[in-house]
Description:
The complex is a heterodimer of chains A (130) and B (362). Chain A is 20% helix and 34% strand. Chain A is of the alpha+beta class. Chain A has a six-stranded antiparallel sheet with strand order 1-2-3-9-8-5. Chain B has eight helices and 19 strands. The chains are: A alpha+beta (130), B alpha+beta (362). The interface between A and B is medium-sized, with 11 and 17 residues.
Amino acid sequence: MDYEFPENLKYTKTHEWVRIEDNTASLGITDYAQHQLGDIVYIELPEKGANLERESTASEIESVKAVGELLMPLTGKIIEVNNNLVDNPELVNSSPYDSGWILKLEYTNELEINDLLSVEDYKRIAEEEN
Amino acid sequence: MIQELKKTPFYNIHVNLGAKMVDFAGFSMPVQYDSIIKEHEAVRSKAGVFDVSHMGEFLLEGEDVVDFLQYVMINDLNLLEPSKGQYSCMCYDNGTVVDDLVYYEENPNRFRMIVNAGNVEKDYQWLNEHIGNRDVKITNLSSERSRLAFQGPKSDEYLQPLMDVDLNSVNRFYFARGNLNNTPIFIARTGYTGESGFELSFDNAFAEKIWSDLIQTGASPAGLGARDSLRLEATYSLYGHEINDSITPVEAGLFWLVKPKEGIDYIGKKILLEQKTHGTERIIVGLNLLERGIIRENFKIFKENVEIGYVTSGGYSPTLKKTIALGLIKKQYKEVGTKLEIQVRNKNLKGIVVSTPFFRNV
């Protein structure tokens, strides 16, 4: 299986990708995760301003056959959500790392970044699961 | 112990096409090749080919087949004639469903029956237990024959050039025997998608050739995911969901299947006719959501915080581009336009009872 995992991102074992920028992070689900879910038809986005703990559910992602969760990779406050996904949830399938981004957060505990996975470590996890 | 999944004669084809394979009724089956939505749309716009070889196929032979089927089936065999098929249920004494199925009359002493994959052994046993002293012999052909569904608005146009029978002469629910590119097949104008189309049965030896002939017409491979979304739009019952051994055909809205058959006794007759006349405490209705979200089977349904039923099937409709579902609810809430709530994990979404079918082209 050929999945795309950009080198410059961090990952979680629950298949989120994270792009760290100063004190914020934008994130979404990986190419592997979108492929496993299949055609995505609805995304429940979190409220802007919500403060969420690491590993709590930030968003529910419904495909034709299944439902997946986006878990917070870092504790923080939601500062932006991708409202394009309301009418175009399929962007997560077609462009998981770019126009299919899901939310942006302001993280509150910098140390948690150390727990995120490198692309090599994540690739191994995705391959094993596959 | 892990039991190895059974494979249909098309298994290698599915794997080579990169299908996502899942366990369905003990078979390794393709849920999708690429995208459920694309496969669904291919069937609605042109034609799709489905491997349905996991389903069961029985041959019933003998002097008393008609009498036997009149006893175990709720539909009326008097409406049949040679070269015609009929959809029916066989029920328990209490009216709940052993299985729903289609049988085809080749002649009064020979019927072909197609049953649900998950019920093959149960049905075979149930049928045999009820033959009594009638002259009926049942042969299970499930593993020696292959079955494909060829469904969509272009199915006639695509298939006719390959066939030596005039498909126009095969009306809905009728069947013929003919050759597809010189290969002998049984072909019925039946289906489970809400589109025109055919269901084919043939010897396993021809499986790969027929698959490739059908794909070359321009039809797309379609998996079980699209099969389910298409049948839900068309509002066809699925065993284990809308009907099962605790739901009757009348509750499932299949009251038209329950026939009076005067002078003929059949299993479940008493309670089913009573239900058909007087109604049931619960009934299956169509549902839409009044807000965004997806509802799926087993989600609970409420009216003003009182639980009134549950979702039997639900999901996203690629054709209507919204959530559709079927729910088994208390009868007093069945009217179209009734507002209710469906529990989606930790919250309730507003829903409404709507008329069915959601979508059909046949």
